[in-house]
Amino acid sequence: MNIIILIFSFLTVMALSTASFWQTASAVRLEAASFCGSLTANRVAENALQKKIFQNIPSAGTGIPSPEDGGHKRIAVFKSHRVKSRPHQYARLQLAAIWDKEAHPFVESTFLRLLNELYGHTPWFRQANASGEIDALLTNVVRFGKSVEGKVTLHELFSALPPDHAKLLYKMVKGTHTYTLENKSGYPPLLDFVSFSSGSAKHTCRFPFASLPLLRALFDEKTALEILSLEKEKWEKDHKRHVCTKADLVSLLQYRPISPTQPADLDTYFLFSRQTVAGEQVSGKDTPTGIHTERRLAK
């Protein structure tokens, strides 16, 4: 009797297991059929789209439609080199000029305005600026630069600063993964706009390359936009890149008495040369810190 009950129980369990297995297998087959149907439909639609694109390609002898033939001419769009997301290496404020006694007040005030332009929308910068930490940070940077006679390296600068100032500077140097200056989304790495390189040049910026944030720090919002507008007007004549000349800048500043930079400052602090040196610097990302750094190539 016990054997009959045991056999019956075993058969019952096997029947239930088999039923469950076939139910699961049926569900898997149904799901696979659904995926297969979806992929087939997508492939058919994609093939139809690519076929239509291929059929619309002009034949070998037609070329690009001209306006005379009722075609459309490609419209050129002005894109200023001063608004690139990662500015040219010459487009940065040369902080090395801050060690020069004559340039020190001008560069210091420009540097502070540039920091406010880049980070003024962030809560941490506003708090540090309100508490005087930004001014104290700049004072320590200047003091350290003079102590090493302008031969500043970023690593030594971080080590020489008080912990709070080093943390604040690191936050600016690191930046966020992405940023948009015009929309005030994120904030950029400081080294994209400021150079700590202790070169022999005493100028604060190479004006033909200066980025839009630096122009705003050197002059004011209206003058910076007028410079871009002037360069756009020149571009519209021949669709070639032009930059605001020294004469153009003097003419603009004559009507901007409140601008921090005046015509008398141009020869002292600005360099108007457009010459560049190919391969002067290489850039890379420091793995431990995530900071983008640059190294000057040996000549």
What can you tell me about this protein's structure?
The chain has 299 residues and is mostly helical. It has a domain at 88-275. 51% of the residues lie in helices and 6% in strands. It has 10 helices and 6 strands; from the N terminus they run H-E-H-H-H-H-H-E-E-H-H-H-H-E-E-E. The strands form 3 sheets. Strands 1-2 form a two-stranded parallel sheet. Strands 3-4 form a two-stranded parallel ribbon. A two-stranded antiparallel sheet has the order 5-6. Helix 2 crosses helix 7 (212-218) and helix 5 (154-160) runs antiparallel to helix 6 (163-174). The longest helix has 54 residues, at 2-55. The chain is elongated and about 110 Å long. The N and C termini lie far apart (100 Å).
Beta-strand fraction estimate:
5-15%
Order of strands in the sheet with most strands: 1-2
Which residues sit in consecutive blocks of at least 5 with pLDDT less than 50? Answer: 59-65, 295-299
By DSSP, the count of extended strands is 6
Shape: elongated
Q: Radius of gyration, Cα only, in angstroms?
A: 32 Å
**Annotation field: number of helices:** 10
Q: What keywords describe this structure?
A:
disordered C terminus, two-stranded parallel sheet, elongated, single chain, mainly alpha, 299 residues
Protein topology:
Layout: H1 2-55, E1 93-94, H2 104-119, H3 123-130, H4 133-147, H5 154-160, H6 163-174, E2 194-195, E3 205-206, H7 212-218, H8 221-238, H9 246-253, H10 263-269, E4 270-271, E5 281-285, E6 292-296
Helix pairs in contact: 2-7, 4-6, 5-6, 7-8
